[in-house]
Every structure is written in structure tokens, then in C-alpha cells.
Amino acid sequence: MVGTSLESFDFYLFAYFSAFFVGPLFFDPLGEFGATSAAFLTIALAFVVRPVGAVIFGYMGDRLGRRATLLWTVAIMGVATGLIGILPTYAQAGWLGAVLLILLRIVQGLSLGGEWGGSILIATENSGPVKRAFYAAVPQLGSPVGSILSATVFIALTAVLPAEEIAEWGWRIPFLLAIPLLLVSLYLRWSITETPVFERVLAEGRRDRVPFLTMFAKRPGAMAIAIGAALLGIGSYSLMNTYTVNYGVEQLGFSFQDLLVATTIGGLLQLVTIPLFGAWASRVGSANVVVWGALGTLLITFPMYFLLQFATFPILVATMLVGGILPTMAWAALGGLMNDLFPDRFRYSALSFAYALAATISGFVPYLTFELGVATGFAWWHPGVILAAMSAITLVSAWFASRRAVEPELATDPATATANA
């Protein structure tokens, strides 16, 4: 959980940073509209390459082990994030800074492609079947923790420095913080042991030669279900933490600091709700919790965005709380749902790729919502269309997941290993 938090902190830094600083600092010649679009596309870029990272690190996770792979992913993310903090801006070096920024975003995306699946498996493969859903929810705390840390850094930055100094040099500080955090994360991950499930796979000689191909050959239906089930949990973060920040300031008149405070309050609440939803999933099943989260989000989507247009701080906080709790149900139980869909010998590859592909789609959420806003004159309901679509897809996928038999933790029996193919 701590390792996932630090990696999420690195990644979310750029989400907050991009809403206001990426465009002017690196894409200024494109104009206000073009720079904003380019900033959101740099977010999407890291998501686009995540499936590639999932294939690479999924192979490593299923062949070399969960622990070794997670050491690589966090090291790559930390170094790439720190390097963003020393990039030259357009005013300093022309387009060089933008090119290097794009390259580092690609590296970040590759790293994150292998992070989530390994974190879930470190938790679930060290637990018994009764507590598996709860253990799978614990790494999910990394996302709100990372969001809270990154938002707190920017809140402190805006409180201490004027906007001119932040734009000039202050924006570099949060990215440079990734280096000491990287050392902490490497120490923590070095101290963990390999999971007993992978050790059993290794001892029995059941490692798959090409797990990426096997997962599609053996579990094509499960792959489709996993991708759809992950869409709301990931996409709602992109919508709330990136697009809504920009939309709230540019169109609704909120201050940047108010939005960061509201987002942080929502993240703090998730520190309580995620473990609670994980415990609930242990009793009723992970897929059922995702179903209820998706259904609830679908029902409150348009009322929530209707109220947001009145632009009062209490309504903003309430929106972030309600809009955070219900999608969080789908997020908290996602790891358990996906773990239950796949056997041990290609589980790392399957979880990583399904999650990464859903994240790739979600990475375009800020850009697509922005384009829809432009096309509709920023009508109050335009973000609701995107959130409702994601909720509906996750609802249907999770319902199908609830109808499937749970995979055994150790698929040592060939008959068991190929069941439900």
C-alpha cells in the first residue's frame, strides 16, 4: 500500500500540474486552447503506453516474480518524475522541454502499467480466500493517499508562493520530492518477500512461456469483463482530479485552492470507505460491490453536476464527497473482482493488461470531456455524459463477473486450471 501510494503520488503530481502549468510552460506557442488540449493529451499519452508496460512487466511478474518486478516499476517511476522537475521550459529551450516531457511521460506510463497488478497480487497471494477481497482493497488506498499527498503539496505551494513564482520555479519542487520518496519506497519493497503462490508456481514448473498470449487464449471472456469493470474506478479519478479542477476554475469560477481542498477532503474520506468496502466485499463478493458502486454512480451523476453549477464551496465539497464515495465502491472491490477471474500462472499479466487498457481509455477522459464541453458550450451536463457512460459499462461488466465461478488461488490441477476457459 505504501509503495502504491508513493507511485500514485508521482503520477498524480502531473495531473494537478497539467491543469494549469503544462500548457503555458511547455506549449505556449499553441495558444490558450491548443496549450490546454496539449496538456490534457500529455496525460493521455502516459495512459496510452500503459498496456505496453503491462505486457513487459506482466511477463516479468509471471516469470521472475512479483517482488522483483515491483522494485523495477517504482524505481523507473521515481526517476522519471524527478527528471520532470529539472526540465527546461519553452522560454528556456524552445520545444526541447516539451519533447523531453513527452518522453518522461511515456516512461511513467510504462512503469505504471506493471505497478497495479503486482501490488494487488502481493496482497491477495499472501492472504487466505476468506480475507482476499479485503486484502485486495488495501493497495487501492494508494490512489487516494497519492492524491492527498500531491494535492497537499500544491496547496502548500500556492499558500507560500505567489502564482508568478510557482510558474517560474516553484512547480519544480513537487517533482523533485520524488527522489527521496523513491528511496523510501525502494527500501520498503526490498524488505518484502515473494508470494507463496508464485513460489508454488515456480516449484511446480508451471510458469507460462508467453503469459500475454495464454490469457487471451484461455480467458477471453474474463479479459473483456475485467477491462469493463475497471473503467469507472479509474476513469472517475481522471474526471474528478484533472478535468473537474480545470473546469471548475475556468468555467464555474472556483479558485484552484478551493478545488484542491475539496479534492483532498474527498480523498481523506476514501481512507475510511475503501477498507469498509473491502470488508463488505469479503462478505458479499467483490463483483457485487462493484455492481452497487456503478449503479449508484449512474443514478447520482446528472443531479451532482447540476448542483455543481451553482458554484458554492459547500456544494463543491458535497459533490466531491458523493462523487467520490460511489465510484470508490467500484474502485475498492476492483482488485478482488479481477483476482477472482484468472488462474495463478498468468495472473500478473492478466490483471496488469486489463487494468492498463482500461486506464488507457480513461486517460482520454479529460480530453474528451473538454472537447464535449466546447461542443456544447460547456453545458452543465456535459461531464455527466462521460461519467454515466463509464458507470453503465462497469455495471454490465461487474454483473457478468458476479455470474462466474471464482478461480482457485492455486491452479495446480490441470482440469481446474483450464476450467471456465
From TrEMBL:
Entry membrane topology: Multi-pass membrane protein
Taxonomic classification: Bacteria, Bacillati, Actinomycetota, Actinomycetes, Micrococcales
Chain segments annotated as transmembrane: 9-27, 33-57, 69-87, 93-112, 133-157, 169-190, 221-239, 259-277, 289-307, 313-334, 346-368, 380-401
Designated name of the protein: MFS transporter
Keywords: Cell membrane, Membrane, Transmembrane, Transmembrane helix, Transport
Subcellular location: Cell membrane
Signal recorded as keyword: no
Major facilitator superfamily (MFS) profile domain location: 1-406
Coiled coil: none
InterPro entries found in the cross-reference section: MFS (IPR011701), MFS_dom (IPR020846), MFS_trans_sf (IPR036259), Sugar_transporter_CS (IPR005829)
